Amino acid sequence: MTQNIREMLPYDLKELNILVVDDQEDVRRGLGRLIGALGCEVQTCASGEEALARMQKEDFDIIFTDIKMEGMSGVELLEKINHHWSDVQVVMITGHGTIEMAVSCLQNGAAHFITKPFDNKEILSFVERAGYKILSNRHARLTSGKYETKNIIAIDKAMRKVLHVVEQVAPSKVPVLIEGASGTGKELIARQIHNHSAVRDKPFIAINCIALPDSLLESELFGYKKGAFTGAHKDTKGLFEQVNGGTIFLDEVASMSPLFQGKLLRVLQEKVIRPLGGNENIKVDFRLITASNRNLEDMVRRGQFREDLFYRLQVMKITLPSLRERKTCIPALAEYFLEQAAREFLGDEKSHPQLSPAALDVLLAHDWPGNVRELENTMQRALIVCQGEKILPSHLGLSPELSVRDHAFAETTSYEEGKRKVLEDFQRTYVRGILQHTNGNISRAAELCGLTRAALQRIMKKLNIDKSALAADADS
Predict the structure, then answer these.
(1) Tens of pLDDT along 3-36?
(2) 5-140 has which CATH code?
(3) CATH 3.40.50.2300 domain position(s) in the chain
(4) pLDDT class for 339, splitting at 50, 70, 90?
(5) Alpha-carbon distance 327 to 412, whole Å?
(6) For residue range 155-210, what is the model confidence (pLDDT) as tens digits?
(7) Domain spanning 324-396: which CATH class is it, in words?
(8) Which of 200, 209, 298, 464 is deepest in the core (most CB within 10 A)?
(9) Which of 80-84, 106-110, 242-246, 407-411 is modeled with the greatest confidence?
(10) 440 has a pLDDT exceeding 50
(11) Residues 115-127: pLDDT tens digits?
């Protein structure tokens, strides 16, 4: 089973303030103790009128309210909360006889409903998921006022540390080296440094060194004179000159040849360039930020990168964590990329499907070799293939790797037999995982799989999967 969200939260759930409203004392006490075990601040009220009075004095993040109460009903309380405190999430408490009313409440703004007798796991799971999103949004609002980081999710300690360094280095013009695996957002951090520097009104120019051979890289950065080479029809300013006091971002500097490393070192030392075909030096003024997906210090030790240039580049160094090292960010990043994709592909006026708990479990379990960029592509794919209101694990395209080598390539196994065994392995792994997630609830598992209950039962029977054993595993 994947690590649950509570264990991965970068903030304590004690930051959440939750109110339980019910006219039955045993319900108030029971829910208060259950939710309080997560570390949340939990308060209780015996009526809707008392709850409104409390909300006038204090802010709450989530409110659990019974539908049927003496005096003001939960439906009336929901209406008033939606009118005055629209950002508060309301969970309706209902008996079996009022489920239709609870569904109606969902259509009128409630976030969730729970039935009596309570499923403790369902309640805890909702508070964890909702709490994660509330804390993520809260931190994003706080951060955006200081850093304007609306597109940098920094709810984990590692990324908050990165943004703290950004805040420290941005005002000066010292060179910055950003190291991190491909897809971790190195250019995003470089732009963040520029946007919070004294030269934010001047150009930010990015160039990928690995995409250009030395000759083209030199002409791009230094410029050239008319006739310097075939196709040089006019004098052209290089990027070092064009940036005019702004920021140059050189990505993948590890790919530079030793010869070009020497030329770059001279520019950094003397702040002059000589265009190709020219005979005069030109003074330049720029702030340099570089990035590499390889460890430059190791390359220096192996003689693959100039030591003097390395120390020029890494006056300040920022190391970006891989996504597998900051999995606390995955729910917030997934929501962000889903919203971005919805705006791009569906338009602002159309609602988009929501991420299901089972899909979130798959995202948290994945290793993310492609880092944040892979997650962004995954959410785009999920939005495109999803036809319903919920994004399910099957929409993500992140199914566990099949053990093809164990079956399909065996000398004694035919192609058809190998394919059958591989598919059977996939079905067994997938169905067992879904049933463990739903604690053996076949109807819920079938919904998450996108199958009918009967189809799922046929698969379970064929593979001899016992739901009761899986439910016991989930409880242990």
Answers:
(1) 444 444 445 677 789 999 999 999 999 999 999 9
(2) 3.40.50.2300
(3) 5-140
(4) confident
(5) 42
(6) 677 888 888 899 899 998 899 999 999 889 899 999 999 999 989 889 999 998 88
(7) mainly alpha
(8) 209
(9) 242-246
(10) yes
(11) 888 888 888 888 8
Crossing angle between the packed helical segments 357-365 and 415-437, to the nearest 10 degrees: 120
Domain 404-475 in CATH 1.10.10: yes
> Residues of CATH 1.10.8.60 domain(s) within the chain?
324-396
Cα-flanking dihedrals φ and ψ of residue 151, to 5°?
A: -115, 15
